[in-house]
Every structure is written in C-alpha cells, then in structure tokens.
Amino acid sequence: xxxxxxxxxxxxxxxxxxxxxxxxxxxxxxxxxxxxxxxxxxxxxxxxxxxxxxxxxxxxxxxxxxxxxxxxxxxxxxxxxxxxxxxxxxxxxxxxxxxxxxxxxxxxxxxxxxxxxxxxx
Length: 121
What we know:
single chain; alpha+beta; five-stranded mixed beta sheet; 7 strands; 41% helix; globular
C-alpha cells in the first residue's frame, strides 16, 4: 500500500514539474545524501510537498537546505493538497487552486511590487 502512495506522489510531482515547465530530478527523494531537490531548470530549484490531508508540515531545515542548494537560482517550495476536504454548514468547500507556493518574504514583496506596477499602467 505504501508503494502506491509513494508512486502516486511521484507521478503528481512529475505533473507539477511539467505544468511549471521544469524538469523533475531523478532520485530527488535521496536529496539528503545528494543535495537534490524535486525539480529544476536553469533559473529555478523547486521542492514539492504533497499531502492528501488538510494539513502540511513545513520544516525550517527543508527551507534552509532548499535555499542552500539553489545558490543563485530562484527557489520555492510548492505545497500540493491532493484531495482536501473542508466541510462547513454551507457544504463542501474547495479553493480553485490546491497548489500553493512558499517563498521568502523579500521575494514575495518584489513580486507583489512588480505586479502592482504592471496593473497600474
């Protein structure tokens, strides 16, 4: 049963990498030994965190190592909620996107400022 979950997670990571236009890294699960993340291209280094639950744990050491491995590349952690279920008195609730991006605050501020300038034109 565990192999099925692991294989489906890798398939999902591969699909996310394709959606983002980056190449999945072979044997990225062994990043502790080899310093590999889940996907990269010339400019980006990404780590995927997937869960079929409503909560996801982000460890500071993962963010630290991602940043160290990225060197001068743009680094981000992609949080993927595979099948979230949120029920309220209004019924079943779901966001239009189940993938979220975790980046450093300073980079978020730069992206937001560029976005503001773009929409102000």
